[in-house]
Give the backbone structure.
Amino acid sequence: MGTQHDYFQIQRTLAASHALADAAEAHGTLAGALCALVPYRLEDWLAEILPEGVADLNADPALQTLYEATVEALSGRQMEFDLLIPGDDRPVEERTQALTAWCSGFLYGLGSGAPDPQRLPGDLGEVVRDLTEITRADVDGSDTVEANESALAELVEFVRVGVQLVFDELEPLRERHSGPRPVLH
């Protein structure tokens, strides 16, 4: 799911639709909302990321595939979930910026259905607070490229595992609140 090719395909698809978010932020929003809301349908996601009226059209197959792959990866128990950000052959600055956008989207999506995400108990609250800090991440110009690459890889892995933890731990909340869903706008 998280290959560079997929990232740029989704980016082109969203740009052509005049989307309200880039690929990373849109995927983060999807993952966050899936953690917090049941049901969170493809139509709900498209209504959130695409301009009014565009979301009513049939979904682009690339967006539908991304939606389905994200649902499957989060719901599975094999820890296959991955972030949709540019691949390792892109500059570390570009990937860092995409990671911060991804985390912003995730927090937005999570906030749409979870009680105040900043006040979640225990490890969940800590993960959410850490994701909030990651939204401010930047490349350290005084460090080597290798050090920045290593730091980014650690952050990406932390986010990947943290999101899976949030999804798994909020399952009882999603089951209790599977009634009418709030409008995110």
